[in-house]
Amino acid sequence: MIKIREELNVNKDVRKHHDPQRESRVIAVTSGKGGVGTTNVVTNLALSLTLLGKKVLVLDANVGLANIDILLGLSPQYNLNHVLKGEKKISDVVVRGPGGMKIIPASLGVQELTNLSTEQRIVLLSELASLSEEVDFFLIDTGAGISSNVIYFNLAAQENVVVTSPEPTSITDAYALMKILSVGYAKDHFKLLINSVKDPLEAREVYQNLSSITDKFLRLSLDYWGYIFYDRNVARAVRQQRIAVEQYPHSRASQCFFSLAQKVCSNQPVFQSEGGINFFWNRLFRGDEAFSCRSLDEKGISFIS
């Protein structure tokens, strides 16, 4: 009972310092299919935002893969497990990336997060509260697919950006992911970003086709967030373990990322009463019915429209 009271006090303290005017935006960048470039989108968008003077925190939620670490040539010494054990502070875990962005390396999965003891949640929430006032944008690389990790991080975020490519399989998988989140968990608002396009017309056609299907079968809101040109400089930067925006700032793809960052900043959403980094972690920790990740069969969701 004492531990529960302590946790409630931590949550109450978080709400007390909650300032809607200075709210961190929590954006999950996700995809239904691997290989469409979500990690590249996250890192390039993060750096583009920092170049606009924004403070950015990135969470690598690709549990077990550590894609962002590899992409940026980072070798983190610590992760959230060290915080839970009381061995390190959150400031020791956060890694500084290009442009001053901050990165929380991949470590804990959804199962571990939802199975934390009350005492562990108190420790982690207290540590994470220190980050909330230092960040304008909290970007989450959810990884690809429909695993419990991907679903869970999408549910906890305020905004969801679905990345797809013009390939039919990528479009189909993007639809499947949105269908699961919409039908199974009542997510009704998504942003669509089309990666690796040859021209703006191709991107617009992908959006219009996907939007018409979601309007007909899912009745959700799908905003067009633009496109990223196919650009060999992106792959070249990956091989160099650098970010394209940093290494090739005048490339076609980099210009798209700069435009995307400006769009993100200018399209300020109306925040609900609960939002920001602290509430994101609270949602992950709760593990209540609203955010439980039951199997797709149990949910009765079919991939067929």
Main attributes?
305 residues, alpha/beta, Rossmann fold, eight-stranded mixed β-sheet, 15 helices, 8 strands, disordered N terminus
The level-1 CATH class: Alpha Beta
Number of domains: 1
Strand order of the largest sheet: 3-4-2-5-1-6-7-8
Q: How far apart, in Å, are the first and last alpha carbons?
A: 47 Å
* Helicity range: 40-55%
Low-pLDDT stretches are 1-18, 293-298
The CATH topology is given as: Rossmann fold
With helices defined by DSSP (H or I, 4 residues minimum), what is the helix count?
15
Beta strands, count? 8
Beta-strand portion reads 15-25%
Cα radius of gyration in angstroms:
19 Å
What name goes with the CATH superfamily? Answer: P-loop containing nucleotide triphosphate hydrolases
Mean pLDDT: 81
- Level-2 CATH architecture: 3-Layer(aba) Sandwich
Plain-language structure description:
Helices cover 50% and strands 16% of the residues. The model is unreliable at 1-18 and 293-298 (pLDDT under 50). The radius of gyration is 19 Å and the shape is globular. With 305 residues, it is an alpha/beta fold. The chain has a single domain (30-284), classed as Rossmann fold (3-Layer(aba) Sandwich), CATH 3.40.50. α2 (38-51) packs across α13 (252-266), α7 (118-132) packs antiparallel against α14 (276-286) and α8 (148-156) crosses α14. The protein has an 8-stranded mixed β-sheet, sandwiched between helices. 42% of the residues are buried. It has helices at 2-16, 38-51, 67-72, 80-84, 90-93, 110-114, 118-132, 148-156, 168-185, 200-217, 232-239, 244-247, 252-266, 276-286, 296-299, and strands at 25-31, 56-60, 95-96, 102-104, 137-144, 159-164, 189-197, 221-229. The protein has 15 helices and 8 strands. The longest helix has 18 residues, at 168-185.
